[in-house]
Specification:
mainly alpha, Rossmann fold, DNA polymerase, domain 1, 3-stranded mixed sheet, two-stranded parallel sheet, 11 helices, 5 strands, 46% helix, globular
C-alpha cells in the first residue's frame, strides 16, 4: 500500500502542474479480446503455474488498493468490465483533445496514440519520455505480434505460444520494411490476411468495441476530481504516518 501510494505521489508532484489531475486506469480480470482470440495472454497463465509467487494474493491486494484509491482519494479511477487499461487510455485520449495528456507507462503499445498532438508518454522505468512513429509502431505490432501478450506474428498460427515445442515462423526485417505502407491484401495469402486482421483487432486501439467505449466515457464523466476530505482518516486508519506528513502532495 505504501509503495503504490508513494509512487502515485512522486509522479503527481512531477507532472501535476503541467498535465493536471491524475486518472488511474485499471485492467479488468476479464478481457473482450479473448472472445475474439482465446489464446490472448494465455501464455502468461501457463508461466504463472510454474512460478512460486502467490499471484492471486498479489492481484487481490492490488484490487483492494485500487478500490481504496477510488473511495478515498481525489482521483478518478476507471475500471470497466472486460476492458484493459490500454482501452481506457485509448478512449479518453481520443475523446478529450483540448488539453495535454500524459500517458505514464513504459508500454510501447501507446506509441500509436502519439498520432494525437496533445499526447505525450513518459516511461517510469526508464525515467524518460517515450517517442516514436505512431503509424510505423502500430504497423510493426500488427505484423510482428506481441509475444508477451501471446499474439503471434502474421506468419504463425494462433496456438504457437501455447503449444510446447512450437515456434513462430521467422519474419525478416527485409519483409517488414518492404510491406510497410502496402495494402496487406497485396502481400498476404489467405492465412496471413486472417492473421493480420487477428493482430489488428488485438493491438489497434481504434478497434475497441463501441459498447466498451461508451462504458468508459460514462464512468469517467460520472466521477469527479478533487474530494480530499477522506485522506487524513484513511492515512491514520492504515498507519501511513510518512504519507500523512505530506498529505498536501496528494
Amino acid at each position: 500500500r505504501h509503495l503504490v501510494l508513494s509512487t502515485i505521489k512522486t509522479f503527481r508532484i512531477k507532472f501535476h502542474e503541467e498535465y493536471g489531475e491524475m486518472v488511474i486506469c485499471a485492467d479488468s480480470s476479464r478481457n473482450w479480446r479473448r472472445e475474439i482470440f482465446p489464446q490472448y495472454k494465455a501464455n502468461r497463465k501457463a508461466k504463472r503455474k510454474d512460478d512460486h509467487t502467490n499471484w492471486q494474493h498479489l492481484f487481490d491486494c492490488l484490487n483492494t488498493i485500487r478500490d481504496e484509491i477510488r473511495d478515498n482519494f481525489p482521483y478518478k479511477v476507471i475500471h470497466i468490465d472486460t476492458a484493459e487499461a490500454d482501452d481506457i487510455i485509448g478512449v479518453l485520449v481520443k475523446k478529450y483533445t483540448e488539453e495535454p495528456i500524459l500517458i505514464l507507462s513504459s508500454d510501447k503499445d501507446f506509441i500509436q496514440l502519439q498520432k494525437y498532438s496533445h499526447v505525450t508518454q513518459y516511461s517510469p522505468m526508464q525515467k524518460k519520455y517515450v517517442k516514436g512513429d505512431p503509424k510505423f509502431s502500430l504497423y510493426e505490432k500488427i505484423i510482428k505480434g506481441d509475444s508477451g501478450d501471446g499474439v503471434p506474428n502474421i506468419l504463425s498460427p494462433d496456438i504457437v505460444f501455447v503449444t510446447e515445442e512450437m515456434r513462430q515462423k521467422p519474419l525478416t526485417k527485409k519483409k517488414l520494411d518492404a510491406w510497410y505502407g502496402v495494402d496487406p491484401k497485396d502481400y498476404c495469402n489467405e492465412d496471413m490476411l486472417r492473421n493480420w486482421h487477428r493482430n489488428s483487432a488485438m493491438v489497434d486501439l481504434d478497434q475497441i468495441p463501441s459498447s466498451i467505449c461508451i462504458n468508459i466515457l460514462n464512468d469517467f464523466e460520472k466521477q469527479s476530481f478533487g474530494d480530499r476530505s477522506k485522506l487524513l482518516s484513511y492515512f491514520i486508519k492504515h498507519r501511513l504516518k510518512d504519507l500523512t506528513e505530506n498529505i498536501q502532495e496528494f
